[in-house]
Specification:
By secondary structure, the chain is α/β, with parallel strands linked by helices. The chain has one domain: P-loop containing nucleotide triphosphate hydrolases (Rossmann fold). Helices cover 42% and strands 22% of the residues. A 6-stranded mixed sheet has the order 6-7-8-3-9-10, with helices on both faces. It has a 4-stranded antiparallel sheet with strand order 2-1-4-5. Strand 4 and strand 5 form a beta hairpin. Helix 5 packs parallel to helix 7.
Length: 280
C-alpha cells in the first residue's frame, strides 16, 4: 500500500510548488490512472513514490510517503526500487544494455537475485510479457512498443509490488498502445501487481483503470472510481482535459433521452447505450 500524507514539494530552481498538500491512499492490487495538463504535477508525484524525490532530485520536501510502511525519506532508493518499479517516459534513457536478454538480466544480477533463480525467472518474465521472440534481439532494432514491453519486463523481473509508468504510450500507435495496457491489466489481475499509469490517451486509460486521479496545479482535484470521476465533464473542460468521446456522446444523448445512469467507458458500452436509446 502507498500512503501519501500532506505531500508538498518544490524544485530548487522553481518559484512555486510542483506538489501541494497531496493526500492519497493506493491499496494493494489497484490499477490507477493519473491525468492532468502539463505542469499539473503528475511526473513529480510518480518520482516521489519510489524515492527518486527527494533522494536524487532535491528540493523543499514536506509531508510523508509510506510504501508498505516504509518512509521514502528514510529508506534507501535501492530498497524502494525493489518495491516500486518505475518505467520512465523516455524509454531509451532507461535502457542500459544492447540486447533484450541482457537488459532483463541486468536488474536481477545487480539486485542480488539468487543465481539459481535467475534463469527460471527470465524465462517466466519473457513468457508473461510475450516477448520470447525478442530475447536475442538488439534493443536498437526494436519498435517503440517492443521497447516498452522490454522495459516493463525488466521491472517485473525484480518482482516489485508496484509498477509506475509515465506516459508509456506517448509515442506508440493505437495497436501498440492497447497491447501495453492489455499487458498491464494481465499483470494486475494475474500477478496482483499494483499499477499506476500517467497517460494522455484518456479514453484508452478509462477502459482499463479502476481508479482515476485528476491533478491540477500540483494538487488532487478528483480521486475515485473511474466511472464516477469521468462524470465531471464540465470540470474536465474547464481544466483543458479532453474527455472520452463515448462520455461526450453519453452527455449528448442524456440531454434528449434516457441514456441510463451508467456512463460508458468504452465503445462496447457506448454501443449498448445507443441501442437502448434507439429501442433496439
Amino acid at each position: 500500500m502507498i500512503e501519501i500524507q500532506n505531500l508538498t514539494f518544490q524544485y530548487k530552481k522553481s518559484d512555486k510548488p510542483a506538489l501541494r498538500d497531496v493526500n492519497l491512499s493506493i491499496p494493494d492490487g489497484d490499477f490507477v490512472g493519473i491525468i492532468g495538463t502539463s505542469g499539473a504535477g503528475k511526473t513529480t508525484l510518480a518520482l516521489s513514490m519510489n524515492g527518486v524525490i527527494p533522494h536524487q532530485i532535491e528540493g523543499d520536501y514536506y509531508g510523508k510517503i509510506l510504501v508498505n510502511g516504509l518512509d521514502t525519506v528514510d529508506t534507501p532508493t535501492a530498497e524502494l526500487c525493489r518495491i516500486v518499479g518505475e518505467v520512465f517516459q523516455d524509454i531509451d534513457s532507461q535502457m542500459v544494455s544492447s540486447v533484450v536478454e541482457d537488459e532483463i538480466l541486468f536488474g536481477m544480477e545487480n539486485f542480488g537475485v539468487p543465481h539459481d533463480e535467475i534463469g527460471e525467472r527470465l524465462e517466466r518474465i519473457l513468457a508473461d510479457v510475450g516477448i520470447e521472440d525478442l530475447r536475442h534481439r538488439r534493443i536498437a532494432s526494436l519498435s517503440g512498443g517492443q521497447k516498452q514491453k522490454v522495459a516493463i519486463a525488466a521491472i517485473l523481473a525484480l518482482e516489485p509490488d508496484v509498477i509506475v509508468l509515465d506516459e508509456p504510450t506517448g509515442e506508440l500507435d493505437p495497436e501498440s498502445s492497447r497491447q501495453v495496457f492489455s499487458l498491464l491489466r494481465k499483470m494486475n489481475r494475474e500477478k496482483g501487481v499494483t499499477v499506476i499509469v500517467i497517460e494522455q490517451k484518456i479514453m484508452l486509460l478509462c477502459e482499463y483503470v479502476k481508479h482515476l486521479l485528476v491533478m491540477e496545479n500540483g494538487a488532487v482535484r478528483f480521486d475515485g472510481p473511474t466511472r464516477e470521476v469521468i462524470a465531471h465533464t464540465d470540470d474536465f473542460k474547464q481544466l483543458g482535459i479532453n474527455i472520452p468521446r463515448v462520455t461526450e456522446l453519453y452527455g449528448l444523448l442524456s440531454a434528449k433521452k434516457d441514456a441510463g445512469e451508467r456512463i460508458p467507458l468504452d465503445v462496447e458500452e457506448a454501443t449498448a447505450m445507443v441501442h437502448k436509446v434507439m429501442g433496439r
